[in-house]
Amino acid sequence: MTRSHVGSPRTVPPEPINAPCDRELIEVRTEHKTRDLRGRSLVGLLMVVVILGALSATAVLGLRSMTGSSGSDGGVLANASAAANVGNRVSGGASPGVGAMEASIACKATADAARSASNVYFTNSGGKYPLKWSDLTTGTSPIYKLSANVAINAMNPKELDGPGWKLIISGGATIAPTFTCR
Asked: Distance between alpha carbon 8 and the CA centroid of its chain, in Å?
């Protein structure tokens, strides 16, 4: 084959038939990639197994704390009592003149703890919610512990009286109770 250049013709030799082609180089590169991908997928699989193991261990510990089978006293019951203690500490020792803000916070914290306790009561009583405060606070192991400055109203067993606030339980039995601060 000849090409004409300015001046004189120049010949370009044809490619040899048995010369290595790009296809062989591609196969070699593909073989290395396959080995690399196998190594990567094994590492990825190990990572997935480790992550799933950690998640399942967390789930088991969470379930144990909810069912109270962790060997310690409590579970959800301890969490409800802890929430009640927080509510009681917020309202602890305060007088009605302290201010509406602190009383409101104490009442809301107590209501949150009472919601948790009512769910525990529902589970323990075979599907019934508490109707009055004494359902949560009496028995051999009360679900909800009242602090010294909080009491059930003697005239209205659905009313809990705290320093500067009142918490009323309504509903119950087959309907989840609601808790209203006043």
From this structure: 84
Cα dihedral sign, 153-104-86-168: positive
34 and 85 within one domain: no
Give the model's pLDDT for residue 167.
93
All residues at 6 or more sequence positions from 7 whose CB lies less than 8 Å from its CB, including other chains: none
Neighbours of 36 (CB within 10 A): 10
Q: In the chain, what percentage of residues exceed pLDDT 70? A: 57
What tokens appear for 91 in the block? 């309202």
Range of the domain at 108: 74-181
Tell me, yes or no, whether 129 lies in a domain: yes
Give the Cα separation of 48 and 40 in Å (integer): 12
Are residues 114 and 81 in contact, defined by beta-carbon separation less than 8 angstroms? no
Flag whether 172 is in a domain: yes
Residue 155 has what pLDDT?
A: 95
* β-bridge mates for residue 169, sequence order: 179
Q: Could you tell me which residue, 14 or 103, shows the higher pLDDT?
A: 103
**117 and 169 inside one domain:** yes
pTM across the whole model: 0.48
Cβ atoms within 10 Å, residue 152: 18
3-state SS class at 27: helix
In a domain, 95, yes or no: yes
Q: Among all chains, which residue has been given the structure tokens 């948790």?
A: 116
